[in-house]
Every structure is written in structure tokens, then in C-alpha cells.
Write a structure and sequence with these properties.
This protein is mainly alpha-helical and 454 residues long. Helix content is 57%, strand content 5%. The relative contact order is 0.11. It is found in: Membrane.
């Protein structure tokens, strides 16, 4: 699993071969950042964690978080991401030992690509304070009550039909309640997904399977492998799947110009802020995500997640078939997904789509996350409506932090940003949503200008 290679005739290891002076795969070799950065290809991947150099080329395929998320850091320093994603880094480090091939030379800085060392150190100090104050520990009662309110919504929706029958008004009310429960279950599975990244968190792992599988009919593994990439490299083209628009949209300031210069016109992009309302919010969950989910489960032979997903549909049809029949039940779940999809798209995109989008820039963790995220003002409604994802900045900086602690760490993050001149954006809910449309129009106009004049 570790590095290989042949020794030279001298007792010194060949540069970049990962072999120590004793001929083994130990960690006695030393490397420069220039040497590490050469190993950034699919068939040759090294990364650095706490100045230790690891060859992850073969092991990346077995990475529990998926091959892509760890491969995104090939040739880079992954220390901040490693700490951010793992609830218990010391537990995970034992899996790294066989992959160790050396360390950075003493003359090499700890940060690569000229990152701001003072900012990195200050953020690490903030994280140490967060851990010391227990802000990464979840309160089971909070999540139990949250799960209870989701189950109550589902029970009330079904109860209304049993008691008063299937009038149009009651069917619409039932649909709204089910869409609300689905949206809220989506935020809850999002919590459990982040809290179960460490296999020691068995109860979180099982609850995640239950919520996303049995309550939503989706796949935990599909979500994890997709969503962790988003957190690892938010708004980075080719690395963040959330901005892979499949040529339907052009996003940010650079992609539209690139498409325009190449004369690419898969869609009339200068009208994308208008057709977004037709194919964005209405279709992302009921069509795009559902196709992806089931294709992934079958292609990966993920029968456990498939069984959980099927349990959702079995329960749904058992509950609603007596009232609506088969085709009526299909229409009901389709309408519920349609409503949920609008909710999901606006909540997730208002904090990301209007922000910077670029190709890889090798920024430090705080700068990278802040350039790609913004917050929405706190209020009781905003907290509930967004599942506390109105605190996107804090969530991205501390992805394993339980949501009920975001508001506690927010002032500390804001102060750190002010100290280092990093923009910390907070918007109203209305502005966040309107900025989605404005950003699409701006990108479409940039495309048209480049398409016509460059």
C-alpha cells in the first residue's frame, strides 16, 4: 500500500521513491513540496498530513469517504481537511501508518502553495478552542426531538386521510405535510451523515441509514461520497459535484467566458435565469437525484442501501394505496418530491451559487470555505426552514459540528475573519434567494458577450 521504488547505489533514497535508507517503506525519507506536488495524478497520488508524506495511490480506492474526495488533495497538504472531516483523527491515523513514506524536509514550510501560515495557525487555535469547549459534541435530545417532529408530520398526514377522507383540500394539505417532513428529514440525514464519518459513531451511522433510506428513499453512501466532495472543494470545477451542471447552466464568472470563447452553446445561456425556474427547482430531486441514486446503488451493488430505500417505497404504498390506488400514490409521491425539490434547491443554492467559482486555487481551509459560502440571517424561521444551513460558513468550517452549536461559534469565526481581512457575508433570506437568479443572469450575460465578441 505504501510507496515503492528502487534504491540508488548509495545509501540515500532516490528522490520521490518513498524508500527509506533501510530499504523498507518506513518514514525516514524526506521530500520537498516540489517533489510531493508531482504526485497528483490518478495513478500516482501522495499527500501531506502534519508534515508526514503518505502514498495513497492504492489505498484511495478503499477510502470510506470515497476515492474522489481524498484524491482531490493529491499532491497537496491535506492536514486541515483531514482534521475537519474526522471526528477522531487519532483513531483514523492508524490506517495511515502503512502508507507513510517519509516527511517534509526540515527546511520546508508546513503550508504548501504559499498559504498564509498565520491564518492557518489562528484557525487551528480556534478549532482547538471549539473542541475544548465541547462544541463538536452532539446533544442526543436535540436530534431525538427533531426526529420526533418529522415522524409526527408523517403520522398527521396519514391520520387526516383516515379520519376525513380524500378531498382535494385534504390531499393538498397531506402533500404539503409530507413535503415538509421530507425536507426536514433531508436536513436531519445531512446531520447524521456528517456525524457518522467516523466508524466509531455506530449509532449515528445506523440512524443515517434509517433517515435517508427508510424516511426518504435515498442512499446514504451515494450522499456521503457526493456531499463530502462538495465540502472538500466547494465551488471548484471538476471537484465539487454540486456545480457540475451538465452543460445546462454556466456558473460563476470564469466558466461562462470559457464556454463563450469556445463557442459552446448547449443551451441559450443568456436565458438561463429564466429557464432555471422550469428545470432547476422542479426537477433536481424527483428526476436528477432519483436517477443518480438508483443508478449508483445498482452499479455499485449497494444492496444494503437499496433495501433501505425500498423499505421507504413499500411503506409509502402500503399507507396510501388504500386511498389513492397505485397511480394515485405515484402521483402523490411525485408531487411531494416536486415540492421538496423547490425547498431543497433554494436553501442549498442561496449560500453557494452567487459565490466565487473557480478552478483549483490551493487555498487554505478557511479562505477556501469563505469564498464559496455565505450565511443567511438567523431567526427561528430561518433556522427551521434551512435546517440551520443558514449557518453555511460555520458548517463548512466545522462539518462535524452539530447544528445546534453553529450560533455559538459564529461570533468567533467572524472575529477571525475580520482579523485577517477575509470577507464574512451574511444576507437576508430574500436577498439570498434573489441573488441566485441575479448570479445566473450575470453568468449568462458574460457567456453571451464572450460568445459574440471573443
Amino acid at each position: 500500500m505504501g510507496g515503492g521504488g528502487q534504491q540508488t547505489e548509495s545509501s540515500e533514497p532516490a528522490k520521490g521513491d518513498g524508500v527509506g535508507p533501510d530499504g523498507g517503506r518506513g518514514g525516514s525519507a524526506v521530500y520537498t513540496w516540489e517533489e510531493v506536488q508531482k504526485h497528483c495524478h490518478r495513478s500516482d497520488q501522495w499527500l501531506v498530513i502534519d508534515r508526514k508524506v503518505y502514498n495513497i495511490t492504492q489505498w484511495a480506492k478503499r477510502h470510506p469517504g470515497g476515492i474522489r474526495v481524498i484524491s482531490h488533495f493529491a499532491g497537496e497538504d491535506a492536514t486541515e481537511a483531514f482534521v475537519a472531516f474526522h471526528l477522531d483523527p487519532n483513531f483514523v491515523r492508524k490506517f495511515l501508518k502503512p502508507l507513510l513514506i517519509g516527511e517534509l524536509a526540515p527546511t520546508e514550510p508546513s503550508q504548501d502553495h504559499g498559504k498564509n501560515a498565520a491564518l492557518v495557525q489562528d484557525f487551528q487555535a480556534l478549532r482547538d478552542r471549539v473542541e475544548k469547549e465541547g462544541l463538536l459534541r452532539a446533544r442526543p435530545l436535540f436530534f431525538s426531538l427533531y426526529l420526533g417532529h418529522i415522524l409526527l408530520l408523517e403520522a398527521l398526514a396519514l391520520g387526516l386521510l383516515w379520519v376525513w377522507g380524500t378531498s382535494w383540500s385534504l390531499t393538498l394539505l397531506c402533500s404539503l405535510m409530507l413535503a415538509t417532513s421530507q425536507a426536514q428529514a433531508g436536513w436531519l440525514q445531512h446531520d447524521y451523515g456528517h456525524l457518522s464519518v467516523c466508524k466509531k459513531s455506530v449509532w449515528n451511522h445506523k440512524l443515517h441509514k434509517f433517515v435517508i433510506g427508510h424516511l426518504k428513499g435515498a442512499s446514504a453512501n451515494w450522499w456521503n461520497h457526493r456531499h463530502f466532495q462538495h465540502h472538500a472543494k466547494p465551488n471548484i470545477f471538476r471537484k465539487d459535484p454540486d456545480i457540475n451542471s451538465l452543460h445546462v447552466f454556466v456558473l460563476g464568472d470564469k466558466q461562462p467566458v470559457e464556454y463563450g470563447i469556445k463557442k459552446l452553446k448547449y443551451m441559450p445561456y443568456h436565458h438561463q435565469h429564466q429557464y432555471f425556474f422550469l428545470i432547476g427547482p422542479p426537477l433536481i430531486v424527483p428526476v436528477f437525484f432519483n436517477i443518480q441514486i438508483f443508478r449508483t446503488m445498482f452499479s455499485q451493488r449497494d444492496w444494503v442501501d437499496l433495501a433501505w430505500a425500498m423499505s421507504f417505497y413499500l411503506r409509502f404504498f402500503c399507507c396510501y394505496y388504500p386511498f389513492f390506488g397505485f397511480f394515485g400514490s405515484v402521483a402523490l409521491i411525485s408531487f411531494v418530491r416536486f415540492l421538496e425539490s423547490h425547498w431543497f434547491v433554494w436553501v442549498t443554492q442561496m449560500s453557494h451559487l452567487p459565490m466565487e467559482m473557480d478552478h483549483e486555487r490551493q487555498q487554505d481551509w478557511l479562505t477556501m470555505q469563505l469564498s464559496a459560502t455565505c450565511n443567511i440571517e438567523q431567526s427561528t424561521f430561518n433556522d427551521w426552514f434551512s435546517g440551520h444551513l443558514n449557518f453555511q460558513i460555520e458548517h463548512h468550517l466545522f462539518p462535524t459540528m452539530p447544528r445546534h452549536n453553529y450560533h455559538l461559534v459564529a461570533p468567533l469565526v467572524r472575529a477571525l475573519c475580520e482579523k485577517h481581512g477575509v470577507p464574512y457575508q451574511v444576507k437576508t433570506l430574500q436577498k439570498g434567494m434573489t441573488d441566485v437568479v441575479r448570479s445566473l443572469k450575470k453568468s449568462g450575460d458574460l457567456w453571451l458577450d464572450a460568445y459574440l465578441h471573443k
